[in-house]
Amino acid sequence: MVMLAAGAPPFLERWAESFDRTELAAAGTTLGLNEEPSWRAASDHLPTLQARFRLLPETVTYDDFALENLAVSRTEPRRAIVFDYGEVSIGPAVTDWRNARWSLEAAALRGFDAGFDRPSAEAIALDQILTTLFSLVAASRRPRLPSWTAPLINDVRFGKLAADIAVVLDT
What we know:
single chain, two-stranded antiparallel sheet, 4 strands, globular, 52% helix, two-stranded antiparallel ribbon
């Protein structure tokens, strides 16, 4: 992954900073989460979490790893190109690490893990927290909640999100 040395291109936004406390509160209203301790902790600490995330080395990230967005050459050496750039943004390399791993299974996942260094525990935890919040804010804007929101909502309701926030803030 190529790290950004001179700063982000002005036309790309940082996905983890694309929502604020106001949007979090609106999503909480839609999803019935505003009274949940995890959601309140997220709102209380959102600026701190976003600031800590931004301290991690940044790169151009791609948030839509899927086979239908990828072309692979038929001859050696194998080369691949992504051709759907609608989900390109700026963020820490942990974002691409997570996104790439999400779609891999078995041997492909083992090969990926062997070829890439694992991000720090703090980077992974911050990414998980902000990804959960970002995803729930995005889902709350849809006319119908996607099925993938159920485990994220459970993370809020059953305290996992608050526990993750507490761990990150204690480090």
